[in-house]
Amino acid sequence: MIIAQDKAKRIVQSHDFDEVKCTIDAEDMRYVASLLRNNYSKPILAVIREITANALDANLEAGETKRVIVKVPSSFSPVFSVRDFGGGLSQEDIFGLYSKYGKSTKRDSNNYIGAFGIGKFAPLSYGNNFTCVSYYGGKKTSYDIYVNDDDDTKIAKLNEEPSSEPTGLCVEVAVADSDVEKFKEEVRSFFKVFPKDELPEFKGLDEDDFFPTYENALEGEGWFFVQQKNDRYYGNGYNYGSQSYAIMGRVAYPLDSSGLNFDGDDAEALRDLIQAKGFYAHFPIGDLKLHHSRESLEYNKNTQAKILERLREVKSEIEEQAKERLAGAEDLWDAKCKYAQVMNAIPQSLQNVFRNSFSWQGTKITSLTFDRPYGMHENLLIKEYRKRDDSDATDGYKVQTAQSSRVNCHSEALLVIQDAPKYGLSLRARTLFNENKDIEVIYAVEAKDQSAKDYMKDDWEFDLILPKNKVSLSEVDKAKLQQGTRSSGESRASVPLFQFDKPSHSYGRKNTDYWTNVDKKLDKLDFSDNKKKVYLAITAYRLTDHPDINLKQLDTRVRAVTEHNKDLIVYGVRNRDVKKLDKAEWVEFFDYMKEISIEYCKEHIGDIKKVRATREIQTSYQAKHWQNLQNLLSHDNIFSLLKLSKQHKLIRLHKQFEACKKASEGTEYNAMLLNEAEKHFLDDVNKIAPIEYTCDMLEADCKEICDKYPLLVNISNEISYYTNMVKDDFGKNIDDYIKLVDENEKKS
Prior knowledge:
Shape: flat
Largest sheet: 7 strands, mixed
Oligomer: single chain
Number of strands: 27
Structural class: alpha+beta
Radius of gyration: 34 Å
Strand order of the largest sheet: 5-4-3-6-2-1-7
């Protein structure tokens, strides 16, 4: 990124004064370096942002299309790493270019995210060292970048070996056990603004819904608003919905309205826009000036001008969208319904900004309602008729009535003029409900005198509503009530079906994207194979009976079940129609998942054993002796330095631990179906796939090690994953200690 210079700056001297250029002495560099290393208010986020940015720049510089690989830390492998596929660095580059604070090759182009030359040392704001592995010239070379006791930043070459892997760098940062979840949350937050096709390849993810599914409330060219939600993804840092952001080089920077000088007639609207929660706008790299920590923007005159210019573009585009969405309305009722759709999608904080932007054929649309004024409650009557599901009632629903002070215009509402006799009005409403299956509420408006009629004409402009959208109730026949309940054969034809299918674009932004209409009605489908038909009850395309499960989570469960039944089709049935299904033929999806879970376990015994072994180790964290050794067993670098026999108890324990750790790889669906089987058929699962290495066995092995090598307990309690085991022969000394204890045991 090109760092903009203030070219307008001019210094005028009245005399040739003695002068000197300010520099930094070598012995003082450690203090300056310390300031640069520790200038981040959020070290974990800084590590993720800076390492990733450098990796993306390296790929871009090399013209490499292969995705950067990001490894997310876990309790089993507490390491965060980013691997790029750029050109890599030679030892000369590492000891020269890489070792220099402030040194950067990216200041001549806005194609790159970095520029300041200090981000590569960001891991030192989190811990005292990190590892950089360079794949260059057919070799894999590891370097330890660390801060010594004198607060100097040093780079030490650890080892070098031949390698056939692609060129590039891999930066590895050891993560404290207590910070694993914090890293996950920051990874989740940082990468949320990346386009799907530009996301890195992630390793180590063990959650079905690691990245949140969200919907854009409104979007345009290079900007969008996200729906406001109240969940774990919407609380801190860069999380969706917390405030507004500028995205530059894929990185989101908070926008601060207090840093802008608003002026002009649109000042209030622009201020409301930037203060809107969940607003994101893209800017070209280099447009906005960044603080050298890259945590925030610096609001100089150029940055302010760019932001205000962008806000005006967004405001203008939203206003155009608002007008376009109403342009196709056929009458005033339709225009208000479309207005309701738009306004319900716009974040609450934006509604006042754009409320006056809507018009239809010259008529301003400022509300989604027709409101009765105060004082006209006796001569302008509004009555609501609503459908309420009731299996014992005719047609499967009853009609509820209530007085109202307004008509709400929306796609599931119907407007009628009440000009019929007072008796049998609910039966007339039932006729309309039967003729309009998607209608949930009917508003009947009655003018009792001329003043009410004048108000409807002049203020509500009812003349702009087509007759088909303001039906006269007197022209509607009363529905004929039937005795008893309709047979299933009579009602099946009216049951529409939907097929569950994961959307092919951008995470499935809408619930409707997960469902496709089935062309045929239930009674027209061919189910000649006599297989079970699987269904889910849905309301507004959400799961009626499982409201805590979103459709992205459902997709994972469906894919797990299709591991057992490749031909599975899951149908969505509107909740009110579920009672019409023949339960001898149909089974609810989660009941079906329960049925096949134990069969799946029998067919995949090997994978199921792996999952159970992994979980057994995961539950061992409460075991005392395992707790005493967990830092030691989790530290791979120690075991690469130990020269013990492969049959040594400690080595075998570490191998067993590693095997259980790796057993979970690629077992996402196995674990899901196993959980279901254990919930309902635990005894059968225990017989099918007994756990061969239990938590108690691990604890017993750890106790044996603790008793025999008590000093290892002290060492384990004092080290962490990022402890340098090479420095001062730490690893070698541990190896010598173990051998000494073993030799003394033999002598005795």
